Amino acid sequence: MFAPYLPHVTETIYDSLFTSSFNIPSIRITEFKDTQTPHSYESSERIIEKLINIISAIRRFKTEKQLSLKVPLSSLTLHSIHQNLLKEIIPHEQLIKGITHAQAITYASGNIKHSSLEKQDDRWFAVLDLDHITDEKEESAS
Predict the structure, then answer these.
(1) Which letter, b or e, does each residue of 44-83 get, where b requires 16 or more Cβ atoms within 10 Å of its Cβ?
(2) Considering the entire predicted model, what is its pTM?
């Protein structure tokens, strides 16, 4: 990136760090597609997709109840029959709390009939079925 602007500097750095490693005498003739390692983040993509689905579901529920997205949730309960899914989501708890304004998140295994957002004693509680959250999203869109 700096080579067009600082050719002498980048060439010197390349020469001292990489010439012996790659046996290529100049940065100008280096083909980076051969030197870069391709990365695959399939598990991260799956987790991010689930996080987006959780956040979208909470936002959808709040919108349906005509609530501000900033209304705090006293509790958000995430249900799944897959223990591994719950374990993968736990490290991202702070992110979910911050975006959904959930004060506490609990995790439960097992099936529930449907996801919901309910008010009890001026406090809001959300329950999400992670195994069917994308199905519910598709149903509400149609």
Answers:
(1) eeebeebbebbeebbebbbeeeeeeeeeebeebbbbbeee
(2) 0.67
